[in-house]
Fold this protein.
Amino acid sequence: MIDHALNILTTGSVFFTVAVGLLIILSVMGVVNLAHGAFMTVGGYAAVIVSDQEWNPWWSLLLAPAAGFVLGLITERVLVRRLYGRPLDTILATWGLSIIVVQVLSDRFGRSSHFVEEIVSGDPIEFAGTFYSQYRAFIVIVAVCLSLGLTAALRYTNVGIIARAVILNPDLARVLGINTRKVNAITFACGSALAAFAGAVIVPMSSVDPNMGTPWVITAFMVVLGAGVSLPGLWISGLVLAAAQVLATFYIAPVVGSLVVIALPIVLMRFYPEGIAPLLKAR
Amino acid sequence: MRPTLIRSISRLALVAGLAAASAVPVYAQAKKTGAVVGLVTELSGPASLFGEAGLQAAQLAADEVNAAGGVLGGKLELKVADDNTDPNTARQVWEKLVNEGVDAIIFRETSAARVAALPVAEKANIPALYANDYEGGDCRPILYVTGEIEPQKVPAYLKFLKDKAGGGKFFILATDYNWARITTEMVKKAAPGLGIDIVGEEFTPFSTTDYTPLITKIRDSGANVLFSGIVGGPDNVAFFKQARSSGLMQKVKVVGNIALDDTTLSAVGGAANGTYMAASYFMTNDNAGNTKFIEALKKKFGDDMKPQGYLSEPAYDTVHLYAEAVDKAGTTETSAVLKALSEVKFEGPKGAIQLTTDRHAAMPIYIAEADKKGAYKVVESLGVQQPPKQCDPEPPFGMKKQ
């Protein structure tokens, strides 16, 4: 039982970390960034560079978001900015961009897999009669810090207040003299940085290859679909999907486990097209 | 490449001239010297790691055969073709080789490519020699398999793992595809006779990144042996890193791999430290035959030498076995060569290989342990293992079935 709870907590934290960048871009800009997976892959390769140079693995947590931020800024300037108000075209354009990024990475690093040093390693922690991986504990801490930091930034900083204003009513925000272009550019860059950050966080437990982002962009999309525009909603959605995946993998089969992550949000959409966010607000 | 190409073009022109009206292929010529063998392997695509190593092994063997006087008083020539790790391409390059009049085809390809391409050799009625490990059971009369088959090593390997762990509770974890499913069935069939209890089995999709629920399940099952058929570097790294960091490796006493070959292990590195593998060939085996083989490869290829493993080394044995069979038969004619193949023996890097009348191969099997640097070290020899009967012996060999 405790095993399941811990596994759900860690998988949920991974889901949250992976999806939060997508959520921020979607809620502020109304843009579905399908290059999210490609930005995660960039973060993964940032970790590969850190590992290859034999730097301290902690540097990957800095290098990855920096690379993501710059890439996001450029993408917003040359691509996304020209497609505002055309959501379908943005989806196509960002998907196309992700193909280009993946090809560039394949060309530079090759198609084979790379493996990355763990940021936190060591013997498992013994906890309530079971063993728990230090790295997984680290991921939970990262996810919690990330959500607290973002909540604080949205609530207490000027940028956060402006961002919330744009989320609530973009037109009114512009009328009030808020430079929505600037807000959008910064939002997109931050979302991309978060994607790359997530990539660097998850790769030490698996591996890096040019296509690693594709399954993750689907997972991230599904988690965001379930959540709606809300950070607590993203946590709930992430944990529920993690629970479904962990339990289905354990009690039925791994294939069913990966299937429910996709099936569950689709069923949810049928009844709550806005995700679970409105339910949280209604209280 | 260049001289071979020119020669094959001139040969084609010659053939076209000679056989302008009839469709009689080249091997109808009387009194020929030497032999031309098609060598098909993966020089691009996902399996190219094995294909390039297999090509080097085969080229070395051809050099050795020619240095020792060649075959039938002439040269043994390899015509190399790349199947791009793709069954469709495989079929096309086989057809091209047959049109060029090769006497036989030696191939190191995936099972999917094998199934797609073999009808080409059947139609042309030329011997096909499969220099690879596979699950067994392919009984086309023109086909010889020179690599090991899983049923040949699984029972002895299971017994080794059970003895090592001091108990017979096995959990099987494998990647979800045909080969692994067939191998799992083999393990389950052999288990009761060895006093082994299968306490669980799970199949994971390719590129699984999160193994945690399964690690919990393996731990809860009380297994003392984990039998792993996880395929490929990324999946093995993800699993072993997560298993190690969550304490599973301390809980199960013994982990036996069946799909983690030494080329992949070198990419996986230390994550699989302490796990076992059974195969006919390990590059680190320090017997005399292998030392000589590795020295010769280093001399021929220098820094370009690819690491060898049980998925590539058979190409070396196969070229030698074919050359000996042709010499013994005194001809490259198909039925005579097929018959001679079951009578020749080759002493190579892995030890003595003897092809069987049901067109598979008896050979020594070794067990090795992975070390911290991602290399297997041989820890035990299981001796020569006969393949269980796969096919009906079929004299006269090579008769075309209508």
